[in-house]
Amino acid sequence: MAIIQKLIYGEHSVRADLDNGESLKLPYSVVSDYSLRSGLELEGELYVKIYDESLKFACMDKALRYLSLRSRSALEVRSCLKKKLFRAEHIESVISQLTQRGYINDYDFALSFIKSRMAMKKYGKDIIRRDLFLKGIDRNIIDETMEECNANEVDEDALYSLAQKKYNAVKDKKNSYMKTAGFLKGRGFDFESIRKILAKVIRETGEEQD
User: How many C-beta atoms surround the C-beta of residue 95 within 10 A?
Assistant: First the structure.
């Protein structure tokens, strides 16, 4: 059994200080639903319910703080909450609520992610697809958003710039062609585009391919 010593009302939550030394952070709705007040005894099942509500609220609060930094996929939010050791049922409840409210939207996240990567002009479609998959984005969403952003088209100017810079850095070394091609493949560009652009770079240097 615990007794509520006092309720401290904040801007977005209420803190219930108990006589056992605990402080439970709760949403206003819980205070109203359970008619919480100073001097109220929290016995047995009631204490368990209020304590559980405080854990759910903490889980939601952490998720919102995490999302406030930037857009996140559902998998990223889930992984963050798991690391904080929140209960699985609370995590799934929070993700469901935030998805319904629009705070988590994997389609919008994918669009933003793709546009950001394209603007950097350092990555090809393969690496963008891989990174989206690692962030838990469904393959159908990846296909749709890549198409919407025209991300399947090779940015030849970006590829040329990367190829030229890398080749010039390694051209005096052994296997310079393969080193450059491997670097560009690692950035997510396809072999045919790499072959075409790298041939152009080498022609412009007036050197033989090793």
Answer: 19
